Prior knowledge:
Blueprint (H helix, E strand, L loop, with lengths): L2 H15 L2 H6 L1 H11 L5 H14 L5 H5 L8 H9 L4 H11 L4 H14 L5 H7 L5 H14 L1 H10 L6 H20 L3 H14 L3 H14 L3 H11 L3 H11 L5 H10 L5 H14 L5 H6 L6 H14 L5 H10 L2 H13 L5 H11 L2 H14 L5 H7 L5 H14 L5 H10 L3 H22 L5 H9 L2 H11 L5 H10 L5 H12 L7 H9 L4 H17 L7 H13 L5 H11 L5 H7 L9 H15 L4 H14 L3 H16 L1
Amino acid sequence: MPLGYLALISIGVLLLISPPSARAADGTAEERLIAILQSDTSPRDKDAACAQLKRIGTKECVPALAALLTDQQLSHSARYALESMQGPEAGAALLDALAQTSGSNEVGIINSLAARGELDAIPQLGRLQSDTNADVAVASCEALGRIGGAKALAALEEAASSSPGAVNDAKIDALLAIANKLLTQGEQSAAQKIFQRLYDGEKSDNVRLAAFRGLILSSGARGIDLMSNAIAGADSAPQGAALQLASSLEGAAVTKSLADLLAKTQPPVQIALLQCLAQRGDAAALPAVASLADSPDSDVRLAAISALGDLGDGSVAILLAQKAAATTGAERNAARQSLLDLRRGAVTGALLEAIAGANPTVRLELLRALGSRGDKTALPTLADLARGDDDSTRAASCQALALLAGLPEIPSLIQLVVDAKSDDARSEATEALGVVYQRIQSQTGHADASPMAEAIQNGPLQVRLSLLPICGGLNDAAARIILQVEVNDSDPQIREAAIRAECDTRDPEMLPDLVQLALGSGEKKFRLLAIGACVRLSTREENVNIPVAAKLGAFKTILDGPPLDAAEQRLLLSGLGAVADEQALALAVPMLDDQAVRPEAARAVIQIAGAISGARPEAAATALKKVLEVSTDPTAQKEAQAALQHIQEK
């Protein structure tokens, strides 16, 4: 192994275990690295030494690194180390090497001088702009742009006015870079001169756009006039630059200038201005923007309506509601969205105030917005409107209540059901109550049904019939108890409503009640409904966890009860097939003997056997053989044979 490589390893270890302050002060380590650079060791070792000198090197290592700058293999490594070194020695070494190199090495050194911001390199870089090697000339222009300042600017301007394409492009980019740097340093006047020369003298749209952008930024108050004139003008390059800047320039004067342009420009520019004003978010533009909501151009109207959502307050609420009521498609959607987006001032108060004087269609849009905006201060007014006699207003108010109300509003919603003057009013209030209850339950996992249970116990027939279905969707003890009571009510309407509510339940604790309904000797339709509810609750309801033993117990109890007809058996088999348990298989296999349900029984047996074949292969195989013996259905035969073969191959 070469001596240089061994030395490099030892130095690397030393650097890793030494604190940074110790590394910088460790002359011995630097000397060893210098020795590697000056030895005849491999380029790989010297490259690694350069990387370490970048971290710990001082002016003492500059000569050794400088010697490598003309080396085709190691020039990059040496430059990498010298670029970040403090002190003039590193820059001087790079500058000295510039005259001794060519091609890619020369370009690399130019880039390193630019990275260091070497002012002393400017004269030489200025001369190299005319180098016959285009890569060198381009790199020199770019470097002058990166170094910046008056001297670099002078060097760029003194170069030949006509240069090859790439070199000229690099020179222009460098001038723009210097001008932008002057702009950030607060030297607007100097920057403006450069931008103006480029704007006046160049033909490229991209260059003129960049230069005009700089002109606006460097011209102070006059820049606003430049921007406005460009937007109103016909030259696309400055117009594009001005529109790009318009949204980011600060100040009320800019907003006023842009808003004033709305009435003076054509639709394409108006649309761009409206989008710009919306991005600026300055409400001072609101009157001018609102005036274009009635533009004869549909695209302008759409842009204005959309901008009102960002800029508007309660004063435009009625305008947006009118647009939502009177338009269709994209305009209606935009108006509705803007009504939701309004956030300035007392928007809810303005919406509520506008309801009284609005025509029916506009009133519906106002109510829609109140429900969707999520401001609960609207609840009392909405509740009052939900008690009114106007059908459309009442219905829309109930829909808004459904979106806004929460647990505290449950009693008042129940009272809306109780106080309803018509079936339609009761239905609307009931629907709102059900939506709120479901939202509360989904958010918290529980919804107290006690207020509703009390209303069912004490309310008139129509109220009880309206509220019972809601109980079926709640996992709550009060809902469970009231259903258990009402299924035995003497009134057949109440009893049916309670049975149907139980059969819609998602409460796992209601499974025993459903089994009892399935065993009952009442109407056939209720028995089938109850069996279907047992199957759904046990096997198909998401987020309902019932132990397998409880599922099987329910199915077995139903099978052991009064004889089931074919429809009831098929329904039960659909549930058994979803239970991956040997006991489910034991319940399903005997049903293969009933020709009326044999296809469904075969399907269930195949499904269960496949699910338990890993843990209970013998039981699964026996059941599958039974399917093969009795079934004449080709599909069942094929599936059973495949499942059996799979078990036998294990």
